[in-house]
Amino acid sequence: MVDAERGFRNGEVRIVAVPDIRVAVLEHRGDPALIGESIRRFIAWRKAVALPPRLGATLNILYDDPLTTPPAAFRLDLCAATDRAIEPNDAGVVVKTIPGGRCAVLSHTGSEESLRAAILHLCMDWLPSSGEQRRDFPLYCQRIAFFPEVPEDAAVTDLFLPIR
Prior knowledge:
Elements: E1 2-3, E2 8-9, E3 14-18, E4 21-29, H1 35-48, E5 58-62, E6 75-81, E7 94-98, E8 101-109, H2 112-130, E9 139-145, E10 156-162
Antiparallel strand pairs: 1-2, 3-8, 4-6, 4-7, 5-6, 5-9, 8-10, 9-10
């Protein structure tokens, strides 16, 4: 089935088993307009502890939809996969685990603005027609190639929808 409005096909979704992922997390809480500030703080922390993307995958845990969540209630976790000990720090980075299990995965190439269409396809089109059910963990993504390393329209993001 093709989602004509969003341009994705259900056949593009694959189901994979993922292991637990231990991550260093900077929790963004509040207005989505301020995510850039949180990203800059997280990048500075990663540089200070020598944990660049090539040494620890970059992930985001997407708790809320910025278009439907009141700004003060919005939540997003900025993550770097790591097995290192995370010492208490001024940036507020803590350790969490993204639980392993089955996930529906959809790869998206394009800007951050077009990522919403991929998320909607996965959650609103693919999931209801798949016979699968969501697990009790939010959608998350792995940033495979991202700005400024690649042009914004060439960014690659894998979306992970935890399923039973």
